[in-house]
Design a protein that fits this description.
Chain lengths: 332, 437
């Protein structure tokens, strides 16, 4: 009557993603260049918080992606929705002259972009649950479709945010702040963790992802729960799009390509099973940090960005292999 | 391990198979998406040679083994369309095709109907006369004593003892299995209390034909029938999982037309499904989480789970069903089959149902756990819950039901009071041979 996971036990299973994080941090310390005064650049507070900020967009998306994957789905459209959010923000801030202006326009933009992202997520969710399309297929279609929509509505041009007193510049100054990005990410991470660990909905999501048939026999609201995950994922991707626009000072309809893969990689490195049912937010945050630290280390060493991709691939494989070790083979 | 007196070690199941050892697992290791013939050929070096597959040749090769196992289906149809009982027969045919010298059978009859069991026994005796050694794992005493030469009892991973079948007795074996003498094998058969809870009139679905019966408060109704007789379908219809084509159901005097599972649950029904791993439990979730999932909302305020209330309720219900587990957070996968079944039953009893449908709850579990389930059924009835339960084993059905409804090909063949029911009569009705008393 040993729990699967063998000698690792429950704490061991929870700790596994951290081993990966520990490894890349050690790698960072070893490989870090030094300042003129001999201290490690990698460990400087500025560098460490930079890592967090650079991972903020992927981190926020990965939180919602964790919910989607735990409930047995996948969302490939988040990169396109991010670009859509960034571009829509640009349209609303730069090309739109509303009756209200100043802070009210910024606030309205933030609300409208998040709502639009959630709406796109709802379209994914409704088609997947209502028409029973495989999540992979539906979100692949919307990844393509939303990219087209975004380019079409911007005329495939970057929308520059300008400077000084323009509302777009104010928006950029506000949302590109390190503390703000980090606290939004932290608050959402805590919320997602509590949702999974403490609420009825969180339990339902895990149950549905683990065994959909049994969930149906138990009378669980499968469609509503799944729909929720896609709405959350669309909203999170649009929110990440707002941050992206603020940080890059523009709305670029061609940004965010392959972000869905980074987000999924973070979730998987964090120990969430792609087959659904199992996973933690803590793991996903750790997985996001592993990717972030790794990128940072390689960039501090001025490693070719193509080599960076190859190293990332190896890290993903090692991280997931580390987690699979000791797990009992698939149940009969 | 020694084979033919020589020590052997295997690094994988293919090596063991090459040495002439085959196994029929309790949880069937078959592929629902492949055809019957492909399932028989897969992993079989004789049938699987070469790169190209000829489906016609496969079907031809599979046919004699299917016939030997007593399964009359087209080898080309997909396995997914067959019943659990038929799956079991395919698993047997697959092992026959391997032409093994040693065969392990783990509870091969747990999903079989009585006529299929007979066929399996004749297959076994044919194999035995060809010199094949068979290790046969079963909880069913009658089977073991009928077909074995020697009996080995195992308990908690240890060998308790081995004896020649002629030199031991059922009571002795049961005593060894349980580790304590089992005095009262069964509680008193429950009595029907006054007042009708459920009435089913001319119920027809895709698989049921005009079934009628009435169920009183605190009554235990047993359902007898072969695997495809519609016995599971009855539970599905009551639970809103199978559309009702004609007829009516009355629950507490009010029409019962559930649009889905949640409707049925609200009306006070519970369904413990036959396939506990696929339809009942969430194997990697914890014992506590499995137990409370069907009524999690009742432990929550505004969607927020009160973990103490939840854990307390789970603990009480699990103690009530005598479920044994090391820790409530362990995944149910780590429990024995009997304890898994009890977790599943506890899950549904926690919803406080008025009518509880248990679909073959004693399938593939040990004697002690069966006893606990009989006791649970009796307790439920005493508390006023109406119980409908299905079993493939007639003696236990007779001993633990007030009346027995016999189904054959979706139609009710009769309702017998268990006090006067004898197995032969029930079998005759269940196999569609008329002329019962």
């Amino acid at each position: 009557m040993k729990p699967p996971g063998g000698s690792w036990g429950r704490t061991g299973r929870l700790a596994r993603p951290f081993i990966g994080l520990l490894l890349v941090v050690v790698l960072g310390i070893v490989l870090s260049p030094r300042t003129a005064r001999g201290s490690l650049i990698f460990l400087s507070p500025g560098n460490l918080t930079d890592i967090l900020m650079q991972q903020g967009e992927i981190g926020i998306i990965a939180l919602a992606m964790t919910l989607v994957i735990i409930a047995g789905g996948i969302d490939l459209s988040v990169g396109s929705v991010l670009a859509f959010g960034a571009s829509l923000a640009g349209l609303l801030l730069v090309r739109w002259t509303p009756a209200v202006s100043g802070p009210a326009q910024v606030a309205a933009t933030i609300a409208a972009v998040c709502a639009a992202g959630a709406l796109l997520g709802a379209v994914n969710g409704v088609v997947i649950t209502g028409l029973r399309l495989p999540p992979f297929v539906m979100t692949l279609a919307s990844m393509i479709g939303v990219r087209g929509l975004t380019r079409w509505m911007t005329g495939n041009t970057n929308i520059d945010f300008g400077f000084d007193a323009a509302p777009s510049a104010r928006f950029s100054d506000l949302l590109a702040q390190k503390p703000l990005i980090l606290s939004v990410w932290a608050v959402l991470a805590v919320a997602a963790h509590l949702l999974l660990a403490r609420t009825v909905l969180g339990r339902y999501l895990r149950a549905i992802g683990e065994n959909e048939r049994a969930a149906a026999f138990t009378g669980l609201p499968i469609k509503a729960a799944r729909l929720f995950t896609y709405v959350a994922c669309g909203g999170a991707a649009a929110l990440a799009g707002l941050i992206h626009a603020a940080r890059s000072h523009q709305g670029n309809p061609n940004d965010g390509v392959a972000y869905e893969l980074d987000a999924i990689a973070a979730v998987v490195i964090g120990g969430t099973a792609l087959a659904g049912g199992q996973g933690t937010i803590l793991g996903t945050v750790t997985g996001t940090l592993v990717l972030g630290v790794l990128t940072n280390v390689l960039r501090l060493r001025m490693v070719d960005s193509n080599v960076e991709l190859m190293v990332k691939a190896v890290i993903i494989i090692i991280a997931v292999w580390l987690q699979r070790r000791g797990r009992s083979p698939a149940s009969p | 391990m020694r084979l033919d007196g020589r020590p052997v070690t295997w690094s994988g199941s293919d090596e063991a198979r090459g040495a002439g050892i085959a196994i029929i697992l309790q949880e069937l290791d078959l592929f629902a998406n492949l055809s019957v013939a492909e399932n028989i050929a897969i992993g079989n070096p004789d049938l699987e040679s070469g790169r190209w597959v000829s489906f016609a040749a496969l079907a031809r090769a599979a046919a004699p083994h299917l016939e030997a196992a007593g399964l009359a289906v087209d080898p080309a149809i997909s396995l997914g369309s067959l019943s659990v009982s038929q799956w079991q027969l395919v698993a047997i045919a697959r092992v026959l095709a391997l032409d093994a010298r040693v065969i392990f059978m783990d509870e091969p009859t747990s999903a079989l109907t009585e006529d299929a069991v007979e066929r399996l026994f004749s297959v076994i005796s044919r194999l035995r006369s060809r010199g094949v050694a068979i290790a046969y794992v079963s909880h069913k005493m009658s089977e073991i004593f009928r077909i074995s030469d020697r009996i080995t009892v195992m308990r908690d991973g240890e060998m308790v003892g081995t004896a020649r079948t002629g030199a031991t007795s059922i009571d002795r074996v049961i005593r060894d299995m349980v580790g304590r003498p089992v005095e009262a094998r069964r509680p008193d058969p429950p009595r029907a209390a006054a007042g009708e809870t459920l009435r089913v009139e001319g119920l027809s679905t895709r698989k049921l034909r005009r079934v009628s019966f009435s169920l009183a408060r605190g009554e235990v109704l047993g359902i007898a029938g072969l695997v495809a007789s519609g016995r599971s379908e009855l539970g599905r219809a009551l639970f809103g999982l199978s559309p009702v084509l004609a007829g009516a159901m009355l629950l507490g005097g009010r029409p019962h037309r559930p649009a889905g599972v949640r409707d049925a649950m609200k009306a006070g029904l519970a369904l413990v499904p036959e396939d506990r791993r696929q339809d009942g439990l969430f194997m990697r979730m914890g014992v506590r989480e499995n137990t409370t999932l069907a009524c999690l909302r009742s432990f929550a305020t505004a969607g927020w789970v009160d973990r103490e209330a939840e854990a307390g309720a789970a603990e009480r219900e699990l103690a009530h069903s005598r479920t044994k587990f090391a820790h409530a957070e362990l995944p149910v996968d780590a429990l024995s089959g009997g304890n898994q079944q009890k977790v599943l039953i506890a899950k549904w009893l926690l919803t406080k149902p008025r009518v509880c449908f248990l679909d073959d709850p004693t399938r593939g579990i040990d004697v002690g756990a069966k006893d606990d389930i009989y006791r649970l059924i009796a307790t439920l009835a005493a508390e006023g819950v109406s119980v409908i339960w299905v079993s493939s084993e007639l003696p236990e059905l007779i001993a633990n039901s007030g009346r027995i409804l016999v189904l054959h090909e979706g139609a009710a063949q009769g309702i017998l009071p268990s006090a006067s029911a004898i197995q032969e009569d029930i079998m005759r009705l269940a196999t569609g041979r008329k002329g019962a008393p």
